Amino acid sequence: MSHIVDQVSLGAIVQVRDRLLEQQARGQKVLRLESGDPSFDIPIHVREAMEKALRDGHTHYTASTGILVLRKAIFQKVTTENRLSVPNDDHVVVTNGGMHGLYILFRALLDAGDEVILPDPMWTEIAENVRLAGGKPVPVVIHEGRGYEYDPAEIEAAITPRTRAIFLNTPHNPTGAVTSPETLNAIAEIAEKHNLMLISDEAYEHVIYDGSRHVSIGSLPAAQNRTVSVFTMSKTYAMSGLRLGYLAINNPQILERIKKLVRCTINGVNSVTQHGAAAALNGPQAATRSMAQEYQKRRDILFSALEEAPYLKAFKPKGAFYLWARMEPEWPGYNGGNDDWSVTNYLIDSAGIGSSPGSAFGPAGDGYIRFAFSCSTDQVEEAAKRLPEVLSRAGK
Ligand SMILES: Cc1ncc(COP(=O)(O)O)c(C=O)c1O
What we know:
Elements: H1 12-25, H2 44-55, H3 68-80, E1 92-95, H4 97-109, E2 115-120, H5 125-132, E3 136-141, H6 152-157, E4 163-169, H7 181-193, E5 197-201, E6 227-232, H8 233-236, E7 245-249, H9 252-265, H10 271-282, H11 286-308, E8 312-315, E9 322-327, H12 340-351, E10 356-357, E11 368-372, H13 377-392
Parallel strand pairs: 2-3, 2-4, 4-5, 5-6
Antiparallel strand pairs: 1-7, 6-7, 8-9, 9-11, 10-11
Helix pairs in contact: 2-10, 3-10, 4-5, 4-9, 11-13
The structure holds pyridoxal-5'-phosphate.
Pyridoxal-5'-phosphate is lined by residues 36, 97-99, 123, 169, 173, 201, 203, 232, 234, 240, 245.
């Protein structure tokens, strides 16, 4: 008997990680470029706030949508920085990471068979969470030739009577593309014309390079009342293991459903983490800026290395901490395989370098490789040193 959860994969990145950890256990040095976990420690004032919360006995159930001091800080941030029009702090909901926010959001939005338009390639968990909610992911390819910018006309052409929402992610995982305000505006107008919801995943809003600016689609007039914005502390404050995200929701009906789902899934995020998150949002933001600068340095190191290497052609990301690279037709293959997995396998076996095969991110990712440069600068430098040489040796 098949079950809805059987449609979800165990995850390509997990498979790569397990193999790297196995190599490491055998004493080999491995370079962890397969997954997007920031290498940095959390800012000191965040750690201190969490220690204080523990000492002060903040270890009990909290309001299930989040403690007031945190919701106030989030409300302040989303209305000033993201320029969202949520009416008050009751319209922001604290979730167990962005992932949990997305999971309950699709549950709250979709009835069986409802369609969600999403980019292809895209971080795998989006399509999987749509399916888990009984919905149907409708991938719209974003093209290398357009710098992975969304094509509003192609999005509009994918709309059917069953379409419920358009999902967007900028800066984008896996390509690192940053959507322009003009494109966001065009998509917002399409959503308004067809009366669709917009789901805006802004996990990488602060990981942005070359002076680019992050714009939240929910701030645009046509999108204001139809957007649910999804944020996380994982990337901005390197709080990935502490698990805290938040949703900003205008629509009262969706908000009510979300509150019910929070209660029935987690009934509130870890109380100590919530105090840390409030300190992160209310405190100095210098750490976030310096992390973005360090990511930009790593991006440049890795991008230059791939420019010197054969078989992979890298796209220079404007945001997020991923380098997306296309396999050239000359790639000689490995172990009898010729697809993106063969590159990932070759790099693990011959150099202990982690990556993700592009096909893990959807059909359009076939023939691409994603490197994450969220691991330490040392590891990125070492990978950059090894990659040109190890790729030159392929097939020999
Ligand atoms: C595009 C995107 N959205 C959301 C998330 C959620 O992250 P978290 O659950 O750690 O908040 C991630 C994590 O990698 C991501 O890449």
